[in-house]
Amino acid sequence: MEFGLLSVLPPLLAIALAIVSRDVVISLLTGIFAGFLILNNFNPLDAVIALLDNIISLFAEGWIAKTLLFSLMVGAVMRLVVDSGGVAGLVHFLTQKSRTIRSGKGALILAYIIGLLIFIESSITSLVAGTVTRPLCDKFGVSRQKLAYVCDATSAPVCSLIALNGWGALLIGLITAQVTDGMLSGSPTRIFIESIPFNFYALIAIALVLVVILRGWDVGSMRHYERQVTPTKLPLPADGGHISRMLVPLVVLIGMMPVSLYYTGNGNFLEGSGSTAVFYAVLASLFVSFLQYVLGGVMSREAWFKSFYHGLSDMLPIVLILVLAFTIGNVTKSMGTGQYLASLAGDLVSPSLIPVIVFLLSSVIAFATGTSWGTFSIMLPIGVSLAVSTGANVELVIGAVVSGGVFGDHCSPISDTTIISSMAAGCNHIEHVNSQLPYALMGGTLAAGLFVLAGLLLA
């Protein structure tokens, strides 16, 4: 059954309510219920039953269960490195002993560098950058909203430019399917690499956030949050803390990612499971922290488990939002929201305009569904088909698909990457979305202009 314009209603309702009410949970539930109401012929009882069944069925999906468990357990890691004195030790080392970080700008530059260097998985990128630099930002009076923006702008954009991670594996896999179907010819990896220079939004987002950091450029609500924040000092534990208590668990967390990708991919990084890899990585980090803290005499076994449970409970609100975000993703999939939006471009066949049309459609789909990967899966085959049939540059169109997916994802309050960036920085989710939006729109506008120009030059 085709739902047409009605298929857009649930995600737009959830997004509008989230922005107006600032209550993400109620907004998502409202959008989800509206979707199931439409799917069940406006029978409210059937809609409620379908809603509950769908939420329960989420946990049967291995990657979703692992993602939720990862989110819970990474909260435990974050709490443990704080309670052990690892965070305080890091702050003391960077600001007092080595005096490497002397200002809020320095703290944000550190977050930026972490975002560039840790490109294995976008969630890990945000969480490590946020965990390491949040206490530094607090010390120097940088708002957590600004930190969340830096984490978000250097996670998905950076990961979308790299072939050797889960993002690259997905995109190369989608391109491979087009080669197999005869739509494209040549090496899928080569085609993806040649499309990277056309991933305009990702490149602009990475450059723009550096300008914002270096020039202290605060616009919109970001200016308000920066003016309201006051520096806070992180108290040192009785033994003074030590940097190793933070670095060891985080190095294990980061280092286990490529190892786990290699293992789950049977010797091929590109075939590895991202959700399984982050799950294994956080388990290894927790195990090592137990050995380091308990056997090393930093914490008692009881204190370790107390911090562990507190960390899990800290993440419950975020996990609830993720569950609802995954559920509304299922609703939009069942209603064919992405396919409906993509079909709107069916009559627009000018080769020079195809790239910008694909970029805008991908942006809208990612914004409405909250998933860049889902957008890639929908739009890459459509984009390639449009490019081949009209003579548009294929690599440029693939770049437009990826750019649009990342841009729409950045603007969407129901995106899992946006939610995780809020969590990493420890700020209100809607405040992060609202304060990031002006920068994302600037980047999106510039990217759209570049796709128009490139479409004209390469047609």
UniProtKB/TrEMBL annotation:
<feature type="transmembrane region" description="Helical">
    <location>
        <begin position="12"/>
        <end position="38"/>
    </location>
</feature>
<feature type="transmembrane region" description="Helical">
    <location>
        <begin position="353"/>
        <end position="376"/>
    </location>
</feature>
<feature type="transmembrane region" description="Helical">
    <location>
        <begin position="107"/>
        <end position="133"/>
    </location>
</feature>
<dbReference type="Pfam" id="PF03553">
    <property type="entry name" value="Na_H_antiporter"/>
</dbReference>
<dbReference type="InterPro" id="IPR018461">
    <property type="entry name" value="Na/H_Antiport_NhaC-like_C"/>
</dbReference>
<feature type="transmembrane region" description="Helical">
    <location>
        <begin position="277"/>
        <end position="295"/>
    </location>
</feature>
<dbReference type="GO" id="GO:0005886">
    <property type="term" value="C:plasma membrane"/>
</dbReference>
<keyword id="KW-0472">Membrane</keyword>
<keyword id="KW-1003">Cell membrane</keyword>
<feature type="transmembrane region" description="Helical">
    <location>
        <begin position="315"/>
        <end position="332"/>
    </location>
</feature>
<feature type="domain" description="Na+/H+ antiporter NhaC-like C-terminal">
    <location>
        <begin position="167"/>
        <end position="455"/>
    </location>
</feature>
<keyword id="KW-1133">Transmembrane helix</keyword>
<protein>
    <submittedName>
        <fullName>Transporter, NhaC family</fullName>
    </submittedName>
</protein>
<feature type="transmembrane region" description="Helical">
    <location>
        <begin position="439"/>
        <end position="458"/>
    </location>
</feature>
<feature type="transmembrane region" description="Helical">
    <location>
        <begin position="153"/>
        <end position="177"/>
    </location>
</feature>
<feature type="transmembrane region" description="Helical">
    <location>
        <begin position="198"/>
        <end position="217"/>
    </location>
</feature>
<feature type="transmembrane region" description="Helical">
    <location>
        <begin position="246"/>
        <end position="265"/>
    </location>
</feature>
<keyword id="KW-0812">Transmembrane</keyword>
